[in-house]
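Section 5.1 Outputs to date
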Amino acid sequence: MLVVAVIGSPNTGGRTRVAVDAVLHGAAEEGAQTRVVELADTDVPDAVAALDEADAAVFASPTYRSDITAQLKALLDATPRGMPYESGDPLRGTACATVLTGASDHHFLAPEKVRGILGGFFAAPLVSPGLYLPSAAFAEGGKALLDEPRQLAELHGRALVELATAVGSSRWLRTLRPPI
């Protein structure tokens, strides 16, 4: 099983990458192979191609003004969803998780927008709830997670692998598609 994490930060590394690494650690503990695609140094077509290879995907972004970054939004806008005029649908039957980071607790609902896009627009199965980590969840100047948030992030990775396994073994979950 391959879990691809797409990080929509305008810069490589940072707190969002730290959070994603913890999620991927949990996924790897369940036997998954993992790959990180940082949109700061990867073009959108290559990121879409990486998603096409994935059994599960993590969509991650820092939160600005209670929203995801323009980079992640551009990727979602460019990702085909299997409509007759498109070629491909890389998220069909792909279990997804969301990881958002922010300066404070005030943005805790920010993951709901991207979760709505993934679940509603792409009909992707989602790990619930989405993961949101404020700056208070980090130690060492943002270079590490505190124990409890790290364990929660790893749990999301484990749950993502379990969801991807369930979706992969289900004829019906793999074939769900957007209604419109």
